[in-house]
Protein 1
Amino acid sequence: MATRRKHGPAHFAALIAVAALTGCTLPRVHVLHDPLQPAEHLDLGVSYERQGEFDAALREYRKAAVGPLKGRALVYQGNVHVRHGATDEAERLYRAALRAESHNVEALNNLAWLLAQEGRRLDEAERLVRRALAQDPEPRGPYEDTLRAVLEARGAR
C-alpha cells in the first residue's frame, strides 16, 4: 500500500524557487475591471496634484470623468493645464465641463477667470461669473474676485 506524502510550506517554497530559476513564471492575475470608484479616482488625483505629480493627477482625473463627477473631474483637469500654461486645453476642458453640467459653478468661474486673464471674450466672462454668483456659491469670495478681475479687464480695454 502506497503512503501519501504531505507537502509542507518548505516543499512549496522549493517549487517556487525552481520555477524562478528555470524561467517559469507564476500565473498572472488580470483585473478585468477598475476596482476604484470615480470619487476615489478624484480623491487620488487631488492627492497627486498636491504632491506635484501632475501627470498622475491628470490620469486619475480622466478616470473620474464619468457619471455625476464628470464636470468636476474636467474642471480639475483644466486647473492642472492652467498651472502649466496650456490655456487652450484648459478652456476646452472648462467648456466640456459646462456641456456636462451647465450649472457647474467651478467651471463657470474658472472659465471666466481664464478669459479675464487673457483679456478676451470679456462679455462672455462676465455672463459666466454672474451665472455662478446667481447660484449663491459658498464661499462667495473667489467668485467675487473673478467678477472684479473681469470688470477690471473690461476697464483696461
Note: Helices lie at 9-21, 38-50, 54-64, 70-83, 87-100, 105-118, 122-134, 141-156.
Protein 2
Amino acid sequence: MGRVIKGWQIVASYVEGRLHEQRRIGCQDRVSYYRKDGKYCVALADGAGFSDYSQKGAQIVAKNICRYIVRNFDKLVSKKEENIKEVVKEAILRLLSATAKAEGIEIRLLASTLLCVAFNKNEFLSLHMGDGVIGVLRKEEVLPFSLPDNDEFVNVTCFTTSSNFERNLRVSKGKLDDIQGFILMSDGTAEALYHRKKQEFALAVKKIFNWFGRYDCKMIKKALDINLGKMIRNFTYDDCSIIVVKRI
C-alpha cells in the first residue's frame, strides 16, 4: 500500500518471517492507514505468536483503530492521557470481543501489539502497546520516539488483550512543530534497523526517508517489499512490518 496524500507520503509493507514460512503459519503482522478531513492515522499490529487467530486480531485492531482515531481526533487530543487510555481500551476491546464471539474463541487468541500515530496539520497523537519501535524524523535526523516494551526480555511483551491494558499502553501527544516524518516498525524489522542497546536507528532508515519526495509511492513500496523480503527478514525469524510517513 502507498500513496501521496496532500503533502504527506505514506508507504507500508509487511512480510512473513522465516519461521512462520517454515511452519506455514502465515504473516501475523498487519499495517493500515486512513485519512479524512485533513486528519491521518497509521497503525501497525504484530499478532501474538502463540495463536493462529492473532493475525485476525492484528488486522481488526490496525484497520479499525485508524478509523476510530481519525473520526475522534479532536476529542481525543483534548483529553488527558489517562482518559485517552480509557476510551481507546473500550474501543479496542469492544471490537475484539465481538470478533471473539463471532469466531467462538477466547479473546486472548486475538492478541497483538499496537503502534499507532495520528496527526493533523498541527498536532499528533501516538499509541504504543508492546514491542516494536516508533521513530521521528527531525531536522533530517531519525530519532527514537517510543521504545520497545519487552518487560526487559526480548520476545516477551504486552498485548491489546492484556488485563493491564491501561498500564501498558503508552500515550503521547503534542505539536508537530519540526517533525518531518514518522516510522513504525515491528520487533522483527527492528532486529535489522534498530540498535536496542545504543537506542539508535541504522543508517538504512535515513536512506529510506530520503526516497520520499524523490520517488512515487509505488516505487518506494516496491523497494520496501524487496528489502523486507530479501534482506531485513534474514536478520530474524520473525515477521517483519514497517510504515513510513514523510511530509513532502
Note: The chain is about 35% helix and 30% strand.
Protein 3
Amino acid sequence: MKKITLLLITIVMIFSCKTIVQMDNSNFTQNIVARKEVQKGNTVFYFIRHNKTIPDGSKDPDISSRGKKNIQNLIRYFADKRLDSIFSTNFKRTINTAKPIAKSKGIVSDYFNPHLIDVKKEIKRNKGKAILYVGHSNTTPEMANQFIGSMKYSQMMDDNYSDIYRVIISGNKIYEDVLNLEEEVIAIENATMLIANKNKKRKKRRH
C-alpha cells in the first residue's frame, strides 16, 4: 500500500513539474518577444484590423462611436512605442482607424494594397523601423502569415477588433505573437498607477 501511495505521489510530482516548465517556457517566449520589440536595430511590424463600423448596409461603412472609443485604446497602446509609418487600405473604416493613431505619433498615414505586398522588399525597405498596417478580418492575419512564412493564423472572427499581430525581426530570427488590446491597455494603466503610487511614497518620505 505504501509503495502504491509513493508511486502515485511521484507521478503527480512529475506531471506538476512538466506543467510548470511548460508555463515557464511560454512566459519566457513572451518576454523574449517583448524585449526584442524595444531593442534598437530590430524591425517591428504590427497588423491590426479596422475598428467597429456603422451597420448601414453600404460597402464602405465608416467607424461607429464604439469603434472610435476603441481607437483611443489603440492610441494608448502605441503611446510609448515607436511607429515610423502607418499604412491602411483605401476604405473609410481602415483610413479612419489609422489617421488618429498617425496624428498621435505626428506622422501621416498612407495607403497599401495587402494583395500586392512583396514581403522580402517590405522587410528590406523598413529595416530597423516599426510599421503599422491597418487591414481587415481576412487580410490582417494573412499578412502576419506572409511575414512569418507560415499559415499559422486564420481569419478573424466578425466581432474581433482587439487582436494585434506583432512580428519582430532581429537579425536572422523572427519572433511573433498576438496581443489582446484590452489586456494590454489594462496592463499599461496598472503600470502607470504603480509608478504614480511609488512617486507619491517617495514624496511623502522626503517630507
Note: DSSP finds six helices and six strands in the chain.
Protein 4
Amino acid sequence: MAYDNYSDQDLLALCIWREARGETHAGKFAVGCSIRNRVQHPRWWGRDYRSVILDPWQYSSFNANDPNANKYPQPGDAAYDDAEACAQSVVNGDPDTTAGAVSYYDKSLDAHPPQWASSPQFKHSIDIGAFHFFALS
C-alpha cells in the first residue's frame, strides 16, 4: 500500500493537507479533530487513524478518482507545515473545536449537499472556515 511507511501522525497531516490546505489553521485543526473523533468513537469507519483515513470513500482526497489523491506537499510548503502542526496537536489531545463532529463538507456544495448530511444520524455542530461540521445525533 502506498501509505505503509506513514506514521499515524504523518498520515493525519497528509489528510489534513489534502482536505484543507487552503484553510486557516483553525480549519485545518477542525478537520483533524473530526478525524480524531472518529478514532475515539469507533464505528463502521475504523478504529485507528490509519483505518479511519484510508477507509474507502470517507476522505475524497484518498479516493483513486480524486485529483488530490496523487498530490503530495513539496518541501517548504507552508500549508503542509501547518497541517503537520495541526496533526501533532490533534494526536497530543488538544481540545476539540468541532463540538464532536465526525463529518464535514465544503460550503461550496451547499446547493447539492451530500446525502448523508440530511440523515437523522447527523446533526450540524459548527461551521469553521469553508466547512460545515456534523456530529452524530
Note: The two ends are 34 Å apart (CA to CA).
